[in-house]
Amino acid sequence: MALVPNPASDQVRVLLSGSGLDDALNWELVVLNSAGQEVIKRSINGINCMLDVAHLASGTYTVVARLNGRTLQQRIVKP
């Protein structure tokens, strides 16, 4: 999984290509703050999407993508 750009102020592209599940649909995408609380939760169809992070406070977040028992995660910085 890749998050571009990182750091991100407004929007970040979530790229799941290369995950070994390139043709998979219906990923669950969750963004966790540094306390482990869900601040964004949504479903995505396909291997990439745009994620609006403009409303989030500055800090470090963990983006988690789940599908069929597979979990991918990456950190992102919101300046």
Walk me through this protein's architecture.
Helix content is about 0%, strand content about 55%. The chain is mainly β and about 80 residues long. The strands form two sheets. A four-stranded antiparallel sheet has the order 4-3-6-7, with no helix packed on it. Strand 6 and strand 7 form a beta hairpin. The mean pLDDT is about 90.
Ordered list of secondary-structure elements with their pairings:
Layout lengths: L1 E3 L6 E5 L11 E6 L5 E7 L3 E5 L6 E9 L2 E9 L1
Antiparallel strand pairs: 1-2, 2-5, 3-4, 3-6, 6-7
Short key terms for the protein model shown above:
single chain, 79 residues, mainly beta, four-stranded antiparallel sheet, three-stranded antiparallel sheet, 0% helix
Brief digest:
By secondary structure, the chain is mostly beta strands. It is built from no helices and seven strands. It has a four-stranded antiparallel beta sheet, with no helix packed on it.
pLDDT < 50 stretches: none
- Strand % is over 45%
Largest sheet: 4 strands, antiparallel
- Sheet with the most strands: spatial strand order: 4-3-6-7
